[in-house]
Amino acid sequence: MEKTIETLRTSFNAIRTGRANVAMLDKIEVEYYGSPVSLKSIAQISTPDGTSLLLQPYDKSSLKAIEKAILSSDLGMTPNNDGDVIRLSLPPLTSERRKELTKVVAKQSEEGKVALRNIRRDALKSYDKLEKEKKLSEDNLKDMSSDLQKLVDTYMKKIEELCKQKEKVSPAT
């Protein structure tokens, strides 16, 4: 369940809000000498200010490949290549884009909840199996099931809080 929360946090970091964040580029794969590699492994990424990202490739010959990967990604940013570094400017969010991002956040948090429900289902199945094998009494099964439900409820609340936090950062106005 902790893994589900961490995965959700990571995917929320990749969603663009008003500020530049190096985590936005985590999922970008660059075709480098015929094989896909992560952008972080072939370039240094920094945020000189709140509205831009600066990419310094370790190998200058990879500039075009990085530029192509950014253009083909779903970031909605146009890279500025000056021959040495690539600059990415984050345009201010429009209200339409904010609404889109809010929907993405809601969808990802729902996926997290589904993952938690699947974990609960699997645990309940293993409880039932133990009961059938007479390794668990009916009372123990009920106690464990209610404890499991409390745990799942706690993690559902954590997901809700993460979702509300992310929506606050990029409110749909």
Automatic annotation (TrEMBL):
UniProt organism field: Brassica campestris (Field mustard)
Annotated NCBIfam families: frr
Keyword Heme found: no
One GO term of the biological process aspect: translation
Ranges in coiled-coil conformation: 113-147
Domain of life: Eukaryota
Name assigned to this protein: Ribosome-recycling factor, chloroplastic
Role played: Responsible for the release of ribosomes from messenger RNA at the termination of chloroplastic protein biosynthesis.
Alphabetic keyword roster: Chloroplast, Coiled coil, Plastid, Protein biosynthesis, Transit peptide
